[in-house]
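User: I'm writing a short methods note and want a consistent example. For SWIRM domain-containing protein, I'll paste the sequence; you return only the structure tokens, no commentary, since I'll be parsing the reply automatically.
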Amino acid sequence: MNPSNETHQQQQQQILPNVHNPLQFTIVLPHSDTNSNPSSSLSNPSNVNDLLTLGIPRKRRRGRPRDTLSSNQVYNLPPEYPNNHQTKQNSFGSNHFDRNPNIGSNQASQVDVSDEIIVINKEATSEALIALTAGFPADVLTEEEIDAGVVSVVGGIEQVNYILIRNHIITKWRENVFNWVTKDMFLDVVPSHCSKLLDSAYNYLFSHGYINFGVSPLIKDKLLAETNTKGNVIVIGAGLSGLAAARQLMTFGYKVTVLEGRKRPGGRVYTRKMEGGNKVAAADLGGSVLTGTHGNPLGILARQLSYPLHKIRDKCPLYRLDGTPVDSKTDTKVEIAFNQLLDKASKLRQLMGEVSQDVSLGAALETFWEVDNNSSNSEETSLFNWHLANLEYANAGLLSKLSLAFWDQDDPYDMGGDHCFLPGGNWRLVHALAENVPILYEKTVNSIRYSSDGVQVAVNGGQVFEGDIALCTVPLGVLKSGSIKFTPNLPQRKLDGIKRLGFGLLNKVAMLFPNLFWGTDLDMFGHLSDNPSTRGEFFLFYSYANVAGGPVLMALVAGEAAHSFESMPPTDAVTRILQILRGIYSPQGIEVPEPIQTVCTRWGCDPFSLGSYSNVAVGSTGDDYDILAESVGDGKLFFAGEATTRRYPATMHGAFLSGLREAANIYHFDTNRALRGKIEKNPSKNAYVCGSVLADLFREPDLEFGSFSVIYNKKDLGSMCVLRVGFVKKGQESWKEGQLYSNKLIFQQLQSHFNQQQEVHVYTLLSREQVLELREVKGGDEMRLNYLIEKLGVKLIGRKGLGPGADDVISQIKAERSKSKPAVTVKSGTLKPKSAMKQKLVRKAKILRKNNNQLLPVEGVGGNDVEVKVGGSSVSGMTKLVVNESIPSVNMNVGEGLIGNFSASASYPPNVEGLGVGVGVGAASHGWDLDI
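Assistant:
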């Protein structure tokens, strides 16, 4: 019925030779099939262009994993990725890694060594895969890396070398996660001319928690050795996110105090000791499954503690109401039909576009089932309802409340690898993380006050804790309840995000039996229901016998049944479970005894959680996770937890990673705040920090027209203005048109996540009069650029090239805004109330294109899709999309901080406004200011 994945893989795939794999996970290649996928034909297994398979268990299949062919996504590394001793002359296409544009044709024979792709390790492909499991794309920078300024110019050889160094550092640490990796370890392999890139890569990886984290003795020594040289941070909540952040902040030199309402650490990760007679066992009543071991930081913690992991075997038989096994053919038939319905739902949301945000996944699936399977019998309907219950378990939410558009928005980022249990329970990880962390228990937080002077956190009993910064890691359910009062109130944007996101419920019944009557050959089995409203009641059983230390069986309650279970008497629950078990095993001649001990969870009633984990509800999007993660109060109050990570929500590793993320954010924000204080006193001394101030000011420009935005001192009509021009280009060109790829949609979603919108900002200083003249130029941005460069003789430069004079102007504008915030915002020359600018941010379900005046979904990756941004504001600006039409290319000659010589090589299509730009310095990123 459900053949083992290992057996299936042995039949379908061959192990990739010659690929060094320090993660000790198998990297496999599918057999070539030129009829179905020409690009999978392989002649050299060690070639960079080979298809490398990483298993990705889909969130939809949390209870019972999909078959191997469905769950494994095939990733084709870009052909440009370097391998062995390739250099820039033969390893990179001209679209991405052209020679530095500063080097003219007359200098071609005098190539500097810094313009060469370095060779660190012959296993560049393997190292790229390992970096991929840590969340880094193969050939581009993440948005976070770009924001951190890890390279001076995005794109080009410098970026390539940075990526190679970054991947090498990650790989070396993953080879031995017990050690503390230092920069000195790489001096012998990284060329001296790349020392700055080594510093940049190492500092980024360390500060953001990608290396040197965890609980090994050498890493704990670093934690204890660090003195409190920085500020005082109050962490609210001792769950995985709070503990991860606390340890990282202590490593950075902060004094940390963790406030926890419960009598124990761990939050929603809770291992209960069960005992009776001569039996003792441990059962995870909260988070239990490590969903994917490829790159999972909790798997790294287990390695540091030398704890083995138990793979949850795929075999999961299902039983009818009367206890008889479901026929394997019927089971397979319904499972295939169910997955086809999910595919149809995915296509439907593409056709519906934004309308799909207001439709539930449950409505779509049930409607499809009624239409497509009107001849199905009662058993098939019960099987269908079992799969719906499994889906509600995976999302901890009713399908009637899950968003059709975005319920699975995190699927492309699922960590590959097996789903596992930790023998002895996950409390072992929690206990190790809590060691040496100052935690105050039974401190229920009632209010959080934050201001420029710091934070005050009040707990039960009237005690108040004061600090410089606070990190709130309470579950989304607590935020929804309003039990914590924030002063001042949280921004409306965050309140709306809290309201929109879903927070569902999953309950469990753990039973310790006197003997293992269900056997040792299964880790899970399921039971059907004939009532849709109770389909999630004890629908799945997990066997903990191999990991708990005793015969423990766990029954899950999901969906609508999870809510009614909150008020069900425990005795009734046990009676119902025993009735199910005896119906299954008594016909086999197996006696089902009374349990020695039973524990029922009530996560919905727990005041410190008020639910289980988050999901994307109808009307919500993945953007709401980002909104919940935003800090408030000018970097005084931060937020972490599984509901703040759009890539890994509803997972233990997501919570842990969010803690590392916010520790990095606190460190960098705190550091930059100190530097901003210095620049305001002497604005000409620190151009980097001035750039940070400049970015803040342009969040609310005083004037906008087309791709131009302006800030100025409102009190002085004769003052100088800072003009910013934004050039936007969508996506990367690394996926060449016409190439075939498996799982194009996955690639599209991955690329769209890391590189949704790429924008380059360049600047100049103009008088107010010149700005107004420029605004009145007819013909759109192309003519404005021509007027700016040809008529006014202005050079557009990177932010560092603005110089001390501009620093003074920027400082004056900031000082004026600090005194009095403008009551109105000027948009395209028209005065509008500020409130009118607060438009709803909408994330489209899929990219759309025009075809015979119809909006249709775009399939696959590549082509000439170009996103043209009209207006500099992401809130109020308009966006148009053109497919397979020519746009003007703009060649940028970069040298000595100047950008000019714009030339258009094609005309705009008639339905496009704005400016489409090909940037000669390489692909740019969202909101990237040329740092020259």
